[in-house]
Design goal:
This protein is an alpha/beta fold. It is built from 13 helices and 18 strands.
Length: about 375
């Protein structure tokens, strides 16, 4: 039986380890001892308490495994990925770090490593579906709207996050890169808000975020954009925070001490944004792509609406993100995807048979991407 190492046992990392341990010999590594103890008590897997911020720790752990899954915080992701590649191990990663993963492409090729990056929902399945259809049609326009939200709207933010507030705030700070008329352009985060009506939720607010990532490099499409969705009103609150300086990472002097506003804000937001145990939330996404197929105009859309899974006590964000990655793990270990180097999900989608297997894997876990065509 193949051995898989999951680096990180947060909400998504735990979901991936639990999903994979039904097929492989899984070890979950994290610095949080109580979380690991609970995980090992409830599921047939091994655990290792380890500080994954240290490259030498990862370098010592990885060699005895057939494949590594990366689920560490974004600020640790690039160095973790580099360390795993240097060790010659294939990896599927969801850490969504800000650095360019293709900076490691030559290293991965030299080491004969397959490194699947950004393998979540969006980026992730959105890339995969675009990559799949790009092999069948000439796509000119691509739009992805995506959001993860609590079922219950609670004043004042009407939002909760299954991960660190700092990672969420980063989406509200990083300039958004879009493609317009074949040219990469930059817009401020939270810009160009629009109201969208999506069943079964109703009206949401969509705004620019920097979610295209690898697609800016790998896909030659005339118009591309990705927007994040929240309940109406959230954008204005976040703009006030941002413009007032609460999201600044520049230290300020207060009563003789240097304080970083962002760290203080994140500390205050954490209890407000923290999802309670078994709190219902959902993931909603709509992907639309249009162009020519066999010389004729065609539009293809995919819709996703997934909710907290009460039977397994698994959040929708963990399910939709984590099971996309575990589906990719199966593709690599089964030999269905063999490309070397840095491999964003659009490369998997372009490989014959892989998209169908990914969608079937997700469907078996009650995650349904509904396709419509015009």
């Amino acid at each position: 039986m193949e051995k898989v190492l999951v680096l990180g046992a947060g909400m998504v990392g735990r979901a991936m380890a639990i999903d994979l341990c039904t097929s492989y010999e899984v070890t979950a590594a994290d610095i949080n001892g109580p979380v690991l103890q609970h995980l090992a008590k409830e599921h047939p897997l091994k655990t290792i308490k380890a500080d994954l911020s240290k490259a030498d720790v990862i370098a010592q752990l990885a060699p005895e495994y057939d494949l590594v899954v990366g689920a560490v915080p974004g600020h640790m992701g690039f160095n973790m990925l580099k360390t795993v590649i240097e060790g010659g191990k294939n990896i599927v990663d969801i850490s969504f770090f800000p650095e360019d993963p293709f900076a490691l492409d030559e290293l991965a090729r030299q080491k004969k490593v397959t490194a699947v990056v950004d393998c979540g929902v969006a980026p992730g399945m959105s890339n995969l579906l675009l990559g799949y259809h790009s092999t069948h049609m000439q796509i000119s326009d691509f739009t992805c709207l995506v959001g993860g939200l609590p079922r219950r709207r609670t004043w004042p933010f009407e939002y909760k996050a299954p991960f660190s507030p700092i990672d969420v705030v980063e989406e509200y700070l990083r300039p958004a890169r879009l493609v317009e008329n074949g040219v990469i352009v930059t817009r401020p985060a939270l810009s160009e808000p629009e109201l969208v009506d999506l069943e079964p939720v109703g009206t949401l607010e969509a705004f620019n975020t920097d979610g295209l990532r690898s697609l800016l490099r790998t896909m030659n499409i005339r118009n591309m954009k990705e927007k994040t969705m929240r309940y109406p009103g959230h954008i204005e609150i976040m703009r006030i925070f941002r413009e007032t300086g609460f999201f600044s990472s520049e230290p300020v002097l207060i009563n003789g001490a240097m304080v970083t506003p962002l760290e203080v804000t994140a500390k205050l937001l954490l209890p407000k944004w923290h999802l309670k145990e078994d709190e219902e939330e959902f993931t909603i996404m709509r992907i639309a792509m249009s162009g020519l197929e066999n010389g004729r105009p065609r539009t293809i859309a995919y819709s996703l609406f997934d909710t907290y899974h009460a039977a397994t006590h698994t959040s929708s964000m963990a399910r939709t993100t984590g099971y996309t990655a575990t589906a990719a793990v199966h593709l690599l270990l089964d030999g269905d995807f063999k490309r070397r180097g840095i491999c964003p999900p659009e490369y998997i989608g372009a490989e014959p048979g892989c998209a169908e297997k990914m969608l079937a894997y997700l469907k078996a876990r009650e995650i349904h991407y509904l396709k419509t065509t015009d």
